[in-house]
Amino acid sequence: MKIRSYLPADLETLKSITVEAFQGVSIDEGIEREYGLVNGHDWKWRKGGHVEADARREPEGIFIAEVDGKIAGYISTWHDPEAGIGYIPNMAVASEYRGQGMGRKLLEHALQHFRNLNLTLAKIETLEQNEVGNHLYNSLGFREIVKQVHFVAPLTETPDNT
């Protein structure tokens, strides 16, 4: 396995890997279960859009894991130099490469990238049901700071406050 920089030609593969990897651990998937399609788009379309947004925001902060010339996973990062914080919005590993330490190597690479930028903290978020992610992040020194609850309200109805 090697880790290389992102190329625009990688985007569709990253979106595909992301959708497959986030099945069952996506906020957007939970929204779809509750409300159905939103504006005619499913959660997979929205999750793919998050990867596109990462590529627009800081493409030099996306790192690709390759095995025999094939994209096996990736991690996206961006940073706020004034705040001293590096952010990891997305990371995904293709199913056939999971359990081989690739996620750990990608995270270690991202953390070193942040150190090279002289940042102070790295931040990553996951859902409670993402057992693999929760274990991995703790093993790399991340600490749970706070739990967050996501609320969604339909805008086509008036709330019943009686």
Tell me, what's the shape? globular
Total number of helices: 5
Cα distance, first to last residue?
Answer: 59 Å
Q: CATH class, anyone? A: Alpha Beta
Tell me, rounded to a whole number, the average pLDDT: 94
Low-confidence stretches are none
Can you walk through the features of this model?
This protein has 162 residues and is of the alpha+beta class. The chain has a single domain (2-139), classed as Gcn5-related N-acetyltransferase (GNAT) (Aminopeptidase), CATH 3.40.630. 36% of the residues lie in helices and 21% in strands. The chain is built from 5 helices and 5 strands. A 5-stranded mixed β-sheet has the order 1-2-3-4-5, with helices on both faces. Helix 4 links the parallel strand 4 and strand 5 (121-124). Helix 1 (11-21) packs across helix 3 (43-57) and helix 2 (27-35) runs antiparallel to helix 3 (43-57). The longest helix is centred in the first third of the chain and has 15 residues, at 43-57. It starts with a strand and ends in a 23-residue tail after the last helix. The mean pLDDT is 94.
